[in-house]
Structure prediction request, 183 residues.
Amino acid sequence: MAKKILIVEDYPDQIELIQRAFQKQKSLDFEVEFAFTGEDCIRKYSSETFDALILDYKLPDYSGLEIFQKLKQIGISVPVIIVTGQGDERVAVQAMKEGASDYIVKDLGYMNSLPKTVKNTINTYRLKEKLREKEEFLEKLVNNVDDIIFSIDMNYRFTYINQTIRELGYDPAELIGNSFLML
Prediction:
């Protein structure tokens, strides 16, 4: 099944080059859509399903980070890659702090590697989501058994303890980092 990508870019020549780069990589099976402004992006994202989002940093109405923040407010659930014409470490750091999956500078060869970068980003994002879901499942499972389940480090300090310890009058959070021998 084709991975659907929304690319937000306002320069027609860049759009054409990006389309060519994705067409050259047909084996990666992408369906690419374009938005030309931040508002266009938000409208499309709200009405369609995408597997990834690529945001140009400088757009006519908003910056890529402003669009990303607006999308987070409505509950974005796909990886976001910020792309910019000029590398700026402050912007890169801010993008990563905001939760962007990647930050790419538009250098001479970036378009040739963009499709593979998007593929890898989607795969990594999906794996992290599966891991998060499994961790949530295991956490619920461990906290709903009647037995006390815990782990300790080499110095006998608790590194994990489930909620069943509450039946003995202890708060699990208070025990983490403390010695098992104190009980």
Remarks:
- The CA atoms of residues 74 and 138 lie 28 Å apart.
